[in-house]
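Worked example 2:
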Amino acid sequence: MYKENQLTLDQTILLGQYLALELVKVEEHFVKSSEEFYKVYKHKPIEKVNNVDIKKEAEQTLLKKTCKQLYNALAKKAHPDISNLDDLFVDVDVAYKKLDIITLYSYVKTLNIKISKATTQAAPELISKQIEAIKARTQALKTTLGWRWYNSAHQEREIIERFIEKTFKLEKH
């Protein structure tokens, strides 16, 4: 994405942050739609949605290494023992544990922290891959039967309900 669309790194980070926020809202809505589905059918939603992550071992290793380098650079400037940026450091710590390179790199840029050339070169591709994983997860949630059932208009919902009843042998309660 970073190279394909010729976005700047700053634009790519902002896109990643926006999509991550959208994913949080979609996940919250997914939980609500699943609860409503359960109330009607007394059955957990049929599909399971797995997290979509960077799969290749080499990419995962590079992601871990890059996140660790960013985390260490941020710790030198934002650790509670050194500064009064306690809240920021909590966010950094959570981002590091989640291997959230978008958030880590965003804080590095915000605090004007100098990082190695290797880290700077690795970040754009890793950020783009994380953006693609966020998009895939969002799409996976939005295409579940429970999501579609909950968010459909009356006529479409009736069709989905007939499909559910015939295919999965579930009846409304």
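The helical segments are 9-41, 57-78, 86-97, 101-110, 117-142, 145-151, 154-168. The CA atoms of residues 67 and 101 lie 6 Å apart.
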